[in-house]
Automatic annotation (TrEMBL):
This is ABC-2 type transport system ATP-binding protein. InterPro entries: AAA+_ATPase, ABC_transporter-like_ATP-bd, ABC_transporter-like_CS, ABC_transporter_ATP-binding, P-loop_NTPase. The keyword Iron-sulfur does not apply. Residues 4-233 form the ABC transporter domain. PROSITE patterns: ABC_TRANSPORTER_1 (PS00211), ABC_TRANSPORTER_2 (PS50893). Keywords: ATP-binding, Nucleotide-binding, Transport. It comes from Salipiger marinus. It comes from the Bacteria. GO terms for molecular function: ATP binding; ATP hydrolysis activity.
């Protein structure tokens, strides 16, 4: 059984704006899913609905087999949420704030656990500090500590490292890896696509309230990935010779670089043929390099394709 199940989820806000348009999603226990999408794509609405913070217009959502509407308390007890917005009680001290959140979920006191969480987030020496005196990065760490305080089985990270320091980002991903090892299911939205590429098992692309793609990260990069061969020429070309035209080649950097794009899954790359033609044309090559498509390239391409006029 999947840990998170979303079926035909729609959300229409007052005024008629349809934020989610029939979303289907299934997330397995212990999986890390990265959800990518531009601002206004529906990422936060989807997370908020799964967490029971937004009432769905139609469709069903289950977490650990519990319906988030009919069995809200049981479903919510399984979820930890790190929201985008920093909203902490300014006069509360760090340790009591984290302890209070654990108590809200009906969990017994466990000071050893809370100390461990705070130490992993470099917050232990700030445990008696009021949150209003913390930096923005430290406040973000407190949010993460609060989300982990009741030992959730599902952790939602909504842009968790946006605008934070490199040290927190490194600590955050180390904790994610540790939680994965414990079987925690993790769903994160991020604009740092290189982080999704590094840590996620699957990648989802959402735009306009619809899931455009949901696929294993490695399979996705293999299936949609393109590779680019950049040939630096000894002398610049004003135009391509006839033998090199109509082959999808491009000149860049004032004619000093010849760009050949090919499919990594194709039987033949065409590189050997290209290099032979360059020699035949008397075109000297100074250097050759390659560049692999990234998730960002794929994401931008998919969103742009969806937004093209019919």
């Amino acid at each position: 059984m999947a840990m998170v199940e979303v079926e035909g989820l729609r959300k229409v806000y007052d005024g008629g704006f349809e934020a989610l348009k029939g979303v289907d999603l299934s997330i397995e226990k212990g999986e890390i899913l990265a959800l990518l999408g531009p601002n206004g794509a529906g990422k936060t609405t989807l997370i908020s609905t799964i967490c029971g913070l937004v009432q769905p217009t139609s469709g069903a959502v289950r977490v650990g087999g519990h319906d988030v509407v009919r069995d809200y308390r049981a479903a919510r007890s399984l979820i930890g949420l790190v929201p985008q917005e920093i909203n902490l009680e300014p006069f509360s001290k760090v340790l009591p704030a984290v302890r209070f959140t654990r108590g809200l979920f009906g969990k017994p006191r466990n000071e050893a656990l809370l100390e461990d969480i705070l130490r992993r987030l470099s917050l232990w020496d700030k445990r008696d500090t009021q949150t209003r005196a913390l930096s923005g990065g430290m406040k973000r760490r407190v949010l993460i500590a609060k989300a982990l305080s009741h030992e959730p089985e599902v952790l939602f990270l909504d842009e968790p490292t946006a605008g934070v320091d490199v040290e927190l980002r490194r600590d955050m991903w180390a904790i994610v890896e540790e939680l994965r090892g414990r079987g925690t299911t993790i769903i994160l939205t991020t604009h740092y696509i290189e982080e999704a590429e590094a840590i996620a098992d699957r990648v989802g692309v959402i735009n306009g309230g619809r899931i455009l793609l949901l696929e294993d990260k490695k399979r996705l990069l293999s299936r949609l990935g393109r590779k680019e061969l950049r040939v630096e020429l000894d002398t610049s070309l004003a135009t391509l010779p006839p033998a090199l035209q109509n082959r999808g080649l491009a000149l860049e950097d004032g004619g000093r670089v010849l760009v050949h794009t090919y499919d990594t899954a194709a039987d033949r790359s065409g590189i050997a043929h290209l290099m032979a033609d360059l020699r035949s044309e008397g075109i000297a090559v100074r250097d050759v390099s390659t560049r692999q498509s990234t998730l960002e390239d794929i994401f931008v391409s998919m969103v742009a394709k969806q937004e093209e006029p019919a």
